[in-house]
Amino acid sequence: MLRMGQIVRQLSPNTTRYYWYPGEKKDWLRALLAAGAGACVFGLSYLLTRSMLTATVLGLGVLSGVAGFNLGRRDLRALDDEAFEKGRREVIGASGRAAWRGLVQGGVMALAVLTIVHLPARGLVADWLLPLVPAVAGALARQAGLLSGRFARESAPASAYATTASRRPHSTDAVGEPGAAV
Fold first, then answer.
1. 54-101: per-residue pLDDT in tens?
2. Alpha carbon 29 to chain centroid, angstroms
3. Which of 24, 29, 32, 30 is nearest to 3 (CA)?
4. Side-chain-facing half-sphere of 140: CA atoms under 13 Å
5. pTM exceeding 0.85
6. Helix residue ranges, H only, the chain
7. What's 178's DSSP letter?
């Protein structure tokens, strides 16, 4: 099911206008947070270094990192174990939305790479290495988002999976207790 947000505007006592937009308000606010963080880092680093290349790489790296972390958490929530219990259509729908998020993230990374490549600075580092920084930051942050969401979940204690045979103390040798002086 595609989630939609709704804005309700009361134009007059008898007129109400409804605006629909894709996604949840929380997801849009997280995207704005990523853009704002990237813009702040861009501005601060440009003030400190007076280098457009450094400011752009750092700003786009932070933007893609925050956005990647949010997309990783969103993917984990979307592909929750409960979605797979509902049926094939829900699984296909959730997978399609995850593919769409991956396509959007890839497009943003490609735009970041093109932005850095087309800056006036030239050289091996400026043309070949620095454009990879936002893409690598976004990919690592997405994995961190997936892992943090996975670690935040409650899991069954390991003792629930242990068999009764594995709970018995192991005998190391016939001399005595394990760890005893020989």
1. 999 999 999 999 999 998 888 888 776 555 677 777 777 777 877 888
2. 14
3. 24
4. 10
5. no
6. 25-49, 52-78, 81-86, 88-117, 124, 132-152, 164-167
7. T
